[in-house]
Amino acid sequence: MKIFNKENGVKKVYVQTRDIKLLKMIPGTPPSILKTNVDDILDDCFIEFNNYPDVSFFQQTDFIQDYHQLKKASVDELRDMAHNVWDLIEEEEKGLHLDENRFIRLEQLRYQLNDYHDVFVYKQGRKKIPFPVVPDFSSNFSLRNDKDRLIIRPGFDDDRLFVYRTDGERLDMQSKVNEFFIRNGIMLAMMKKTDDDIFFCDCNMKLSDNGYLIIDLCSNQGYQLSDEDSKIFKKNYSK
Asked: How many angstroms separate the CA atoms of 122 and 63, rounded?
């Protein structure tokens, strides 16, 4: 899975380690990506790329799914997308000879199905994805306090808010943050999620190493996969 973001005027892409590992097997992958060290990094963690050629390459790499596009899809749409990919996998597996090209094609489809699975269960509150710890600058939701030069914006995880200064200065333990502004931001975020039938009951705050005040909202989500959905997505792991 990949996530595009524009931070301080710089276009970036975050790509999961498992996709980098697969790209290392595919001819034509740029040397800068081949040299990326992914040893001892969990497969669902994200690696940052911020130079133009690499970002452009990932924009054209269709088999790695764009998180923002999957996030827009409903659970039913993700289920249908998974069905379609599994049909393609079964069609590819009918071939008598598994050459290198067909092997790579099958791996790409399985990775694609894996991305659908992760977002499917994430939307149901059954999985935490280790998103990059930065605000989602593509989000339409934000709250500004021009007097104190502060802004609140969600992260890639809907349950996480970021508070940061608009002048680029880092927040630290000595920084003064308007409590009323923070409460308003949390309330607006809670109201937005309540529209999706998700209710928050608590929140935790901490300062990040890069100068953000991070607010983690604790929701009441708790769903189980149906037997049918389990069969669809678990097929991916049976290979």
From this structure: 20
Is position 133 within any domain? no
Greatest mean pLDDT range, 16-20, 102-106, 159-163, 187-191: 16-20
Is 39 inside a domain boundary? yes
> pTM score, two decimals?
0.83
How many independent structural domains does the chain possess? Answer: 3
pLDDT tens digit sequence for 165-205: 888 888 887 777 778 888 888 887 777 665 455 445 567 88
Same-domain status, 215 and 178: yes
Q: Does a structural domain hold residue 150?
A: yes
Per-residue 3-state assignment (H helix, E strand, C coil) for 117-179 = HHHHHHHCCCCCCCCCCCECCCCCCCEEECCCCEEEEEECCCCEEEEEECCCCCCCCCCCCCH
Quickly list DSSP for 69-124.
Answer: HHHHS-HHHHHHHHHHHHHHHHHHTT-S---HHHHHHHHHHHHHHHHHHHHHHHHT
Verify that 72 and 105 share a domain, yes or no: yes
Q: Is residue 99 part of a domain?
A: yes
Residue 150 φ then ψ, to 5°: -125, 155
> Is 226 a residue whose pLDDT tops 70?
no
Give me the domain span that covers residue 18. 1-64
Directed axis angle between helix 100-123 and helix 75-92, to 10°? Answer: 160
One domain, residues 191 and 160: yes
